[in-house]
Amino acid sequence: MFIDEAYALSTGGVGHDFGREAIDTLIKFMEDNRDRIIVIVAGYPKEMRRFISSNPGMASRFTKTIEFPRYSAQELCEIFRAMATAQHFKLPLGIEAKLLPWIDANAKRDEWGNAREMRTLLEKVREVQALRIMKEPTDDLTRIELVDLVQAMAEVA
Fold this sequence. Notes:
- By secondary structure, the chain is mostly helical.
- The protein has 2 domains: 2-61, no CATH class; 73-156, Helicase, Ruva Protein, domain 3 (Orthogonal Bundle).
- 54% of the residues lie in helices and 4% in strands.
- It has a two-stranded parallel sheet.
- Strand 1 (2-4), helix 1 and strand 2 form a beta-alpha-beta unit.
- Helix 5 packs parallel to helix 7.
- The longest helix is centred in the last third of the chain and has 21 residues, at 115-135.
- The relative contact order is 0.11.
């Protein structure tokens, strides 16, 4: 069983906390099936530490932690390029010169979503590009311009 963003179960919500109930059920299920099941929980390190400490039985059941390093700024540029290419967009020359400093500046934020930020940025670039093309209907629908990227970065940051 794989539970992504497992820390969301331990938010300590108000009223009836279904996350607490889900954790208790999960722990019982793990105990009852310990020879037949593997449970993997995933999420951001700080939030996952809070999740593991949310129940006294968690730490003894989740004994292995694997932390994956964040992507480098260059890798994130490549991810952005791959996503754009997969959506049949053509990117301008020099995109890295604009994108790398933006990534370096924003990747320091606690809530930085790594590759998800590239998807969010590409979605915003597509919105900006669509608005630009509305004003210039003869422009290439598959071409993203540097001005699209710069405006999107300003709106996403």
